[in-house]
Amino acid sequence: MIYVSNPHAQYQTLRNEIDNAISRVLIRGNYVLSEEVKAFEKEFSHWVKTDCSIAVNSGTDALFLAMKALDIGRDDEVIAPSFTATASIAAIGMTGATPVFVDVESEYYTIDPESISSAITAKSKAILVIHLFGQAAELEKIRLIAKQNNLFLIEDCAQAHGAYFDDKHVGTLGDLACFSFYPTKNLGALGDGGAVVTNNTNLAENIRQLRQYGWDEKRVSQQQGWNSRLDEIQAAILRVKLPHLETAIDRRNELAEIYDQQLSALPIKIPERRQNTKHAFHLYVIQTEQREELFNYLKQHDIISGIHYPVACHQMPAYTDLNEEKKCLPITESLVDRVLSLPVYPELSHNKIKFIANTIKKFFR
Ligand SMILES: *Cc1c(COP(=O)(O)O)cnc(C)c1O
Question: Which pTM was predicted?
Answer without folding.
Answer: 0.97
